[in-house]
Design a protein that fits this description.
Two copies of one chain form a homodimer. By secondary structure, chain A is mostly helical. At the A-B interface, helix 6, helix 8 and helix 9 of A face helix 6, helix 8 and helix 9 of B. The structure holds a DNA duplex (19 and 19 nucleotides).
Chain lengths: 179, 179
DNA sequence: ACCTGAACACCGTTCAAGT
DNA sequence: ACCTGAACACCGTTCAAGT
């Protein structure tokens, strides 16, 4: 059975779950697939592209009716894979096109009357909070620091603050239309 | 003249400025200092510690009377070194104690009447936006993507949105006390 | 105290050659 | 088309040994 981008991505996810990002090397993935490292390069341009594929797989199937819900869905998806947020952070830095899940943020913001510009900038702010907050949680865990039991509250607090602020930009803060 | 943590940190900053984060290796720093790589380990525990020292040096001398000012000061400091935001992102992940500059955020938030909990969480949200936004700008530049001329506006937009949202949490959004 | 020299166990990536 | 084998140019870190 020939190798494929999908199998390679799944191998990456396996290594991530079991050993974390520090152990996610092309050579390790190849070993996991019982293949020479160079074989991977017929299917994938380089490690960066593979990380984008991996982050895309992690964030597939994220959805939410409203933004707080979507944000929690993204947090859950990232949290389901060890160091998932770090991989996503690198993927958004490497890829010009938005990752699934994150791509749903701007339309939801526009749906509440934000201009294209405000929705774009607001989406970035939200995205930064989501990715960095989960990365901080996961890094704390990786370093053996005890996990903050209030992490979900802290996460939601940030999401709500940003959404309120984006509403406030347009003077609609009194009626909580955004959530 | 014996080696020192300061000289090592400065060598790291030189390499960062000239060649960027991808070229910032212990071996490269050692070569720059005309010293064996192993010599560095007498002064520094490992690369992570050196990155924390480097980020600390980058963010030294950040100040601002209010939060939008402080945020711009941090942005300027990070922007002054190639891939500075990436280094800071790794440093905050690695170090339990806050970096200079970022450490000034919570007291400023408390100064406007936020509870300790709200100030702490709000500071994280602000910190995530600041670091991730500058990292995105710098990564876009590194990838040869044309720099967005509106980047400063986008940055300020996010800062203001978060501050308004934090104010809104306490019902003080009508009077713009935070800035 | 401070550094060298040599080694260990890795990396990502390329590319001719095989099938 | 798809993969192997071998190589290139690197990594971070350790540690005995020198001074």
């Amino acid at each position: 059975m020939a190798l494929s981008r999908n199998e390679i991505t799944n191998a990456a996810l396996r290594i991530l779950r079991k050993y974390g990002f520090a152990d996610l090397s092309m050579r390790r993935i190849a070993a996991d697939l019982e293949v020479q490292p160079s074989a991977l390069y017929w299917h994938v341009h380089n490690k960066q592209e593979l990380l984008v594929l991996t982050a895309t797989a992690i964030l597939e199937h994220c959805r939410g009716e409203d933004l707080p819900q979507l944000a929690r869905s993204i947090r859950a998806a990232l949290s389901s894979v060890r160091d998932g947020a770090d991989v996503a952070l690198i993927a958004v830095a490497a890829s010009p096109e938005p990752l699934p899940g994150l791509a749903q943020i701007p339309p939801l913001l526009r749906g509440f009357g934000l201009s294209d510009q405000d929705a774009e900038w607001g989406a970035k702010t939200l995205e930064h909070h989501i990715l960095a907050a989960v990365a901080a949680e996961q890094n704390a865990e990786a370093l053996g620091r005890d996990v903050d039991p209030l992490a979900p509250e802290a996460f939601d607090f940030g999401v709500r603050a940003i959404l309120k602020g984006l509403g406030a930009e347009r003077g609609v803060v009194d009626e909580p239309v955004l959530f």
